[in-house]
Amino acid sequence: MQTGTHFDREHCVRAVQSKDARFDGWFFTAVLTTRIYCRPSCPVVPPKAENMTFYPSAAACQQAGFRACKRCRPDTSPGSPEWNQRADLVARAMRLIADGVVDRDGVPGLAARLGYSTRQVERQLLAELGAGPLALARAQRAQTARLLVETTPLPMAEIAFAAGFSSIRTFNDTVREVFALSPSELRARAPKGRTTAPGTPGTLVLRLPFRAPLNPDNLFGHLAATAVPGVEEWRDGAYRRTLRLPYGHGIVALTPKPDHIACRLTLSDLRDLTVATSRCRRMLDLDADPVAVDDHLRTDPLLAPLVDKAPGRRVPRTVDEAEFAVRAVLGQQVSTAAARTHAARLVTAHGKPLDDPEGGLTHLFPSPEALAAVDPETLAMPRTRRTTFTTLVRQLADGTIHLGVDSDWAEARARLLELPGFGPWTVDVIAMRALGDPDAFLATDLGIRRAAGELGLPATPAALTARAEAWRPWRAYAVQYLWATDSHPINFLPV
Asked: How many CB atoms neighbour CB 377 within 10 A?
């Protein structure tokens, strides 16, 4: 039995007996008598404690011979918060597996991205998660297959390859083994009306789960207020944007609902479904554990009223780390509107055009390679900013600087700080929103210093940083609560 790094058997049993949804995705309950595995909040009567065993991943359950519960659908749990709050080998590996690297490049490709041998990667994943990279990727493929079977009218052969399986036989065998149903039986059991209507090829409608509470105001407010025309927009209650993906491109529309995020994805290649879904979840910080974050921040009496007023704030992140770094440079010492204008000019001149029948999206954001080829004299910005911009995009394009889900946060910070024009604010905002560091802190940000002064917190960066030591490891979330004291549009859900 393995229960992960944070829970012993007693805690796991209590969570199952109380049907505590907060722990969904943290661990899985396997029932020895039925050979079924469930999420902790499964609605059925909990089994006897002596018949429970616990695993830190669905893949480990499957490897041990357990099949997924048909009632609680444990494969649709939110992801473990662990992988987005750590930067060690296992966490980076899990983020890469979610991004489809094993399916595209195999375990050797995963190991090469991490800078370790395949043996080291396999050993550490097995020790912490009870399953190696192939088993973890297989569990993810099974989940993607189930989603396509239940929500699209696609032929099973197309689903098999879109989900990443090498053959239809492997697809059939895996689905039967994991869900105890054939693909056709899964489709027959799917609720009526869930299948995407014909006439919208490549379009899928999904429900993205999260741990409650989730406050959508600053999350969608930030994305909408800083949206780059042509690449992003707020339309009909949804944040929409274009996506550059491994096999093609996509357009996503994300709408906040009380108990999930409605996600409408249009993909040029369905093999990108897993990657697109993973990146949208990461952008919206949906795998966070808001109860743990908020409980910790409430220990500061000056932050507690902000948390109690609107709990569940997430950190708005990105679907493209290099894009965000470029936009951070464009936003240096200018207004939000000016930053959007600068970015829109780059998009129009150098982005890849695409069609959007449903709205006003026109381009993919330019790649670092495309931006590295831009004549600096054509950039409407001060000369020092041009130098910052051109140095960044050149190093992103040639790989000197790597920003991705597998980035070593400390190394990325150090390399960014070496660039001309990169100070603490630029590096910290990239660490927070692109790298996903939950402890990134913007002590020099004007809005943070203003909020600190109004709340009675120290207003100088050094003194505020010292006070914020008590907020570790969740200082990026403290930033969201401090920003929310202002009336800036980033803090309000668009109407």
From this structure: 7
| Least confident range of 140-144, 202-206, 344-348 | 202-206
Residue 250, beta-bridge partner list: 243, 267
> For residue 194, how many other CB atoms are within 10 A of its CB?
12
Place 193 in a pLDDT band, splitting at 50, 70 and 90.
low
Cα–Cα–Cα angle for 443, 447, 453, nearest 5°? 80
- Fill in the DSSP letter of residue 24: B
Q: For residues 50 and 48, what is the distance between their CA atoms, to the nearest angstrom?
A: 5
Q: Which residues contact 59 (CB under 8 A, 6 or more apart)?
A: 129, 130, 131, 135, 136, 138, 139
301 burial type by CB count under 10 A (0-12 exposed, 13-18 middle, 19+ buried): exposed
Choice among 99, 285, 294, 445 that is catalytic: 445
Task: Quote the percentage of the chain above a pLDDT of 90.
Answer: 85
Region of residue 82 (left: phi > 0; alpha: psi -120 to 50; beta: else) = alpha
What would the two tokens of residue 138 be?
């297989």
Structural contact between residues 280 and 256, judged by C-beta atoms closer than 8 angstroms: no
The reply to whether 38 belongs to the active site is yes
Amino acid at 400: T
Is 445 one of the catalytic residues? yes
Residue 189, amino acid: R
> Is residue 234 within a helix (H) or strand (E), and if so which, with residue range?
strand 232-235
pLDDT at 302 over 60: yes
Q: What are the φ and ψ backbone dihedral angles of 186, each rounded to 5 degrees? A: -60, -45
From start to end of 35-184, where are the E strands?
36-38, 52-55, 67-68
Q: Which of 38, 61, 69, 263 is catalytic?
A: 38
Question: Cα–Cα distances in Å, from 8 out to 2, 3, 12, 130, 487?
Answer: 9, 6, 6, 15, 44
Q: Work out the pLDDT band at 413, boundaries 50, 70, 90.
A: very high
Q: Are 257 and 242 in contact (CB under 8 A)?
A: no
Per residue in 318-336, pLDDT (tens digit) is: 999 999 999 999 999 888 8
- Residues in CB range of 247: below 8 A, 6 or more apart: 268, 269, 271, 272
Helical residues (DSSP H) of 207-355, grouped into ranges: 216-225, 273-283, 290-297, 304-309, 321-330, 336-350
| CA–CA distance, 228 with 22 (Å, rounded to integer) | 35
Cross-strand pairs, 267: 250
Residue 2 scores a pLDDT above 50: no
- DSSP letters along 430-454, please? HIIIII--TT---TT-HHHHHHHHH
φ, ψ for residue 335, nearest 5 deg: -75, 165
- Structure tokens of 484? 């929310």
15 pLDDT above the threshold of 90:
yes
